[in-house]
Amino acid sequence: xxxxxxxxxxxxxxxxxxxxxxxxxxxxxxxxxxxxxxxxxxxxxxxxxxxxxxxxxxxxxxxxxxxxxxxxxxxxxxxxxxxxxxxxxxxxxxxxxxxxxxxxxxxxxxxxxxxxxxxxxxxxxxxxxxxxxxxxxxxxxxxxxxxxxxxxxxxxxxxxxxxxxxxxxxxxxxxxxxxxxxxxxxxxxxxxxxxxxxxxxxxxxxxxxxxxxxxxxxxxxxxxxxxxxxxxxxxxxxxxxxxxxxxxxxxxxxxxxxxxxxxxxxxxxxxxxxxxxxxxxxxxxxxxxxxxxxxxxxxxxxxxxxxxxxxxxxxxxxxxxxxxxxx
Length: 327
What we know:
The structure is a single chain. Strand 4 (24-29), helix 1 and strand 5 (59-63) form a beta-alpha-beta unit. It is globular and about 60 Å long. Helix 1 (36-57) crosses helix 2 (70-80) and helix 3 (150-160) crosses helix 8 (276-289). It has a seven-stranded mixed sheet, with helices on one face. The chain is α+β, with helices and mostly antiparallel strands. It has eight helices and 21 strands.
């Protein structure tokens, strides 16, 4: 029986950050038919090292681990023994479908819709600490997952637009969004207000929003427009590093559908407008710093949600990427 081992591999597009690479790429050195138990044993043995590496690198891609379906992905997730952050209880605005208790589709939006760089659920008061993605089937073309280190982005942005960064840090941001009465699969923000808030009627919705500190306004078509309380745009990590922790790029570029206008989705915490020139600079810098995970079927990616933003490129052909969140 061949021993299951793992080694680092290199990619020409990897970035070098303070003597570390971004992302860390790990390739399993074992037959493709290696027993699942051997894979899980390796993860259990190395999970503390993987957690440490994740906080250092921000992202880890596991390749060749033999994960083939949602059930095996679920077993891999449980081997890490990380606390679950459920989709049903989250305030995510994306439409998703649960496959298991811990596994769901990453986003049901059409392949023609770009999902721009963001920290998962940073537009809400409650967000996961880590993300896991599993590529069950890679797209025919496109469909890569762009990732970007937010500490580097903030450092570059502070140099280019210091007043903007100071305003973000001092004032925070607010997000506004109109949620549909019924789910809208044509939008990356198409989750209904009933599902988002885990309620069944308007009274329950208003009670939940009041507890969350949101403002709201009912629409004629039974949609619900909400505005968040002031949320951070810059976050200080336990290490002391500061990151551009928000959904500003995603909202500014992509919160555009039948109900929402991107330019009316964000403002600073005091209600003042976001500097459009600074946002253009932030977008350009983030694009420069982005690494695209070019999925191979069977790949698993681990992301530190406090350190790394992610998105989704458009694609052709069938693409199945599943996700799981960690509290």
